[in-house]
Design brief:
- The structure is a homodimer of 416-residue chains.
- Chain A is an alpha/beta fold and 416 residues long.
- Chain A has 3 domains: 2-171, MoaB/Mog-like domain (Molybdenum Cofactor Biosythetic Enzyme, Chain A, 3-Layer(aba) Sandwich), CATH 3.40.980.10; 176-253, Alpha-Beta Plaits, CATH 3.30.70.2860; 258-410, Maf protein, CATH 3.90.950.20.
- Chain A is built from 14 helices and 17 strands.
- A 6-stranded mixed sheet of chain A has the order 2-1-3-8-7-6, sandwiched between helices. A 5-stranded mixed sheet of chain A has the order 14-13-15-16-17, sandwiched between helices. In chain A, strands 10-11-9-12 form a 4-stranded antiparallel sheet.
- The model of chain A has no long low-confidence stretch (mean pLDDT 94).
- The interface between A and B is large, with 82 and 82 residues.
- Strand 2 (35-42) of chain A pairs antiparallel with strand 2 (35-42) of chain B, so a sheet runs across the interface.
Chain lengths: 416, 416
């Protein structure tokens, strides 16, 4: 089945807001085997919305809208959509009740009367509860098109997408579509292509394809079958073979990022870590502390941007900085060891390098970055070169190197 | 004039990549007075692209495409677009020369022959040089539609947008459109609306409108005139009046963020700062170190996630933590003072709070965050409450509070 996503909101067309909803919905649909053919964005503009909906009606089997479900006069999605698809709206008392309750318990204020507009939904639709906001979503079928309406605020959209829309769309098909993502770090997409090419080209069910992200590559396998069990049975040997071919470049399955993989591993093993960051300037710390509950695995660290801070906060010997420079293997090691001592953590990672755009005062080139890991068994250090990469990507890749070293330590793999 | 943006790339429809180009182009067009009517995204799929281009031809005065300009067989934008707009391609030897030179000097490898496809551009078009990649862009007019083609990779797109596309589009009009953005922090959009409402409603040239971002509000004024000078003359009194009404909530004009405003102020005044972060976990540090040259203003800091790290790295007295807790005014002050002592920086900011999703072991509610600033004159502390906000937003707002305190210190405004 092919789908189309229409986002409604003038703030998207003025450039005030990025349409992240389209990406998230596309990713979720892709994972259950639904191909997306078009994204369209229109403003809170009845004429443009009508024209986008009319075009979608002609060509899509699934239509998902986001935005324009709110209580004010410029929230027009439901009205125009029902007009284009020749559907009527009806009042849902149980939806009105939930909105009233949400105002009382979460917003601590009485419901403004215009919110009753939110309880008008298409006749006979499946109602999607909004546990984190007021605008309900819904789904119905008309003229061979399955229509799903979701609210625009990304957090509400995401919650309802996974709680309601994806299960609903899965239910449309007698077939089950299942995907698993093997996440890799340290190997290029073109190399994965070479290694898997013969298998990928000849496979139709499951399919197998790599997706490159800024500093890692996801290998996704997707199977269609009559049941989840059968789909899993189809996927298992493929995933095993990919794991065998890609070896320890694979850092996890169905996990969003290396920091998340490390978070789980550290928690399981009851270990903590610390950080000492120079050119990544707090990014390693920021990634782990984004997870609720991260204090179970992360104690803290130092952002030692100046050499004096490396010395005074991390006890890096000044002789090391003078002799080898702040961007050096010995300095990276001393930073990690210093962070471990300072915090008492089981592990510590450090990063020191030249993020650019200019080389440093010792003539070290942009992109030269050392990443070290200190543990009770000893200290390891990786030297990396990032060629012509830009500042933000050099920082991003270096953060992933640090987490990759933690991951390898925790799973008894070679670290350097 | 109204514009339409068509993005081409299957990676956008599978959800592997977010279409950030559409937002950036929209923002740049909006700033020169061009209204965007539609965003459309299609895959590397000739049929879908043809249908999107045909629709745009009927309704747009300006059409901007991104992506599909590369050298491989699935890069089809130029061919299909020229077909739909009945235009021919011709070979541009000077473009071919530049691509050869780019391969030699930047990529240090000979140019693959398929790259010659990149030198085929529409007859009579304006060629847009790509200083950071190989795919040239271009612009031409056909049947009353002004067409601009830009490459898809965001960094290349952004460079060419500002270097070529915006100047080209400005040149289409005899009128000049100019905008200025007054950036505010600490005041809600609805309050700005109230304060400026009477003026906004009656104004047509310049216009005045607030745009809310996650933790700040931009007030944009846009003027149309025969010359830049005249446009500036129209804007000046409006901007002055807005500044007078919003007072010191305004942190700068035409600056992208509070960290950037602080970066400039610190550099001008030759001062440095340091950080001590608990619940923001490195985000304050990460924001400033994203700027090249940030070592001129930022020395470093501590991510003191555990109380022991607050004590051992920042010398926060253990009695403070025991008596008042880690989330308290005295602890925030001691953290900032400790970071200032440790690094020798002129200023230090600290953050300690409950980012959620759960309250802390002392029963402090989610969203309670203390932010402190230490300087030679003394230490200031703000207590903030974030109600029902989510973890990521609580962290984001707290980071902005820290930078707002630095900004106020540096501009002699009340800090707390």
């Amino acid at each position: 089945m092919t789908a189309e996503i229409i986002a409604v909101g003038t703030e998207l067309l003025t450039g005030a807001v990025t349409n992240t909803n389209a990406r998230e919905i596309s990713e979720a649909l892709h994972a259950i085997g639904i191909t997306v053919g078009y994204h369209t964005t229109v403003g809170d503009d009845p004429r443009a919305l009508r024209s986008a909906l009319a075009a979608a009606r002609e060509r899509a089997e699934i239509l998902i809208t986001t935005g324009g479900l709110g209580p004010t006069y410029d929230d027009v999605t439901k009205d125009i959509l029902c007009d284009v698809f020749e559907q009527k709206l009806e009042f849902h008392e149980e939806v009105a009740e939930k909105i009233r309750a949400f105002y009382e318990t979460s917003l601590h204020t009485p419901m403004p009367e215009n919110n009753l507009r939110l309880a008008w939904l298409p006749v006979g639709c499946a109602v999607f509860d909004n546990p984190v906001g007021t605008a309900a979503g819904c789904a119905f079928e008309e003229g061979g098109v399955h229509i799903v309406m979701l609210p625009g605020p990304p957090y509400e959209m995401r919650t309802m997408l996974h709680a309601h829309a994806i299960p609903y769309l899965r239910g449309l098909s007698h077939e089950v579509t299942l995907s698993h993502d093997l996440m890799t770090f340290g190997i290029r997409e073109s190399r994965i292509d070479e290694l898997l090419h013969d298998r990928m080209a000849s496979m139709t069910n499951p399919t197998l394809a790599p997706y490159a992200k800024p500093s890692e590559v996801c290998v996704r396998s997707t199977a269609h079958a009559a049941s989840a069990q059968e789909a899993e049975a189809l996927l298992r040997p493929v995933l095993e073979e990919v794991r065998r071919i890609l070896g320890d470049f694979v850092y996890g399955m169905d996990v969003a990022s290396l920091p998340e993989a490390c978070f789980h591993l550290l928690k399981e093993q009851g270990l903590t870590f610390a950080t000492a960051e120079s050119c990544t300037g707090g990014m390693i710390a920021q990634k782990i502390t984004a997870f609720p509950g991260s204090s179970a695995v992360y104690r803290g660290g130092v952002v030692s941007y100046w050499s004096e801070v490396k010395r005074d906060a991390l006890d890096v010997p000044w002789e090391i900085i003078e002799k080898f420079g702040a961007v050096s293997d010995p300095c990276a090691r001393a930073m990690a060891e210093g962070a471990r001592r300072l915090t008492g953590a089981d592990l510590a990672v450090s990063v020191t390098g030249v993020a650019g755009p200019d080389s440093d005062e010792r003539g070290n080139p942009v992109g030269l970055v050392y990443i070290a890991l200190a543990a009770k068994e000893g200290t390891w250090c990786r030297k990396t070169e990032n060629g012509n990469r830009r500042r933000d990507l050099i920082r991003e890749v270096s953060v992933n190197h640090a987490y990759d070293m933690i991951r390898r330590y925790l799973t008894d793999l070679p670290i350097e």
